[in-house]
């Protein structure tokens, strides 16, 4: 859960926007949200992994340079996406193995 904070400074707002943009893109790629452009739900795990890799890189590159709020938001977002990715990948793998049999 993202910590509640009543006022974000300009950089925290911008950082939040970047993280949320990559989170949304990863969620769309995992089929967790409809693609707003196509209005369809598709799964592209390679694309989802790319967005997750971007967030992981952001986490590494900004280490010890974030506010507590930014750091916690990024940790929570990355953790949530990893759990969703594993869930979707397992579902896709199960469907594929069923089709092979």
Description of the molecule:
- The structure is a single chain.
- With about 100 residues, the protein is mainly alpha-helical.
- The chain has helices at about 10-30, 45-60, 70-100.
- Helix 1 runs antiparallel to helix 2 and helix 2 packs antiparallel against helix 3 (about 70-100).
- It is about 70% helix and about 0% strand.
Number of strands: 0
Query: Structural class of the secondary elements?
Result: mainly alpha
> What is the succession of H and E elements?
HHH
* General form: elongated
Stretches where pLDDT is under 50 for at least 5 consecutive residues are none
Q: Compute the separation of the termini in Å.
A: 40 Å
Main beta-sheet strand count, sense and barrel state: none
Cα radius of gyration in angstroms: 16 Å
The average pLDDT is: 92
Question: Helical proportion?
Answer: 55-70%
Instruction: Count every helix, treating DSSP H or I runs of 4 or more residues as helices.
Output: 3
Strand composition percent: under 5%
């Amino acid at each position: 859960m993202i910590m509640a904070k009543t006022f974000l400074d300009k950089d925290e707002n911008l950082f939040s926007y970047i993280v949320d943009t990559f989170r949304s893109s990863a969620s769309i790629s995992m089929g967790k949200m409809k693609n707003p452009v196509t209005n369809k739900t598709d799964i592209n795990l390679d694309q989802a992994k790319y967005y997750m890799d971007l967030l992981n890189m952001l986490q590494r590159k900004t280490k010890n340079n974030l506010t507590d709020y930014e750091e916690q938001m990024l940790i929570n977002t990355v953790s949530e996406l990893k759990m969703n990715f594993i869930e979707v990948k397992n579902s896709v793998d199960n469907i594929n193995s069923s089709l092979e049999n």
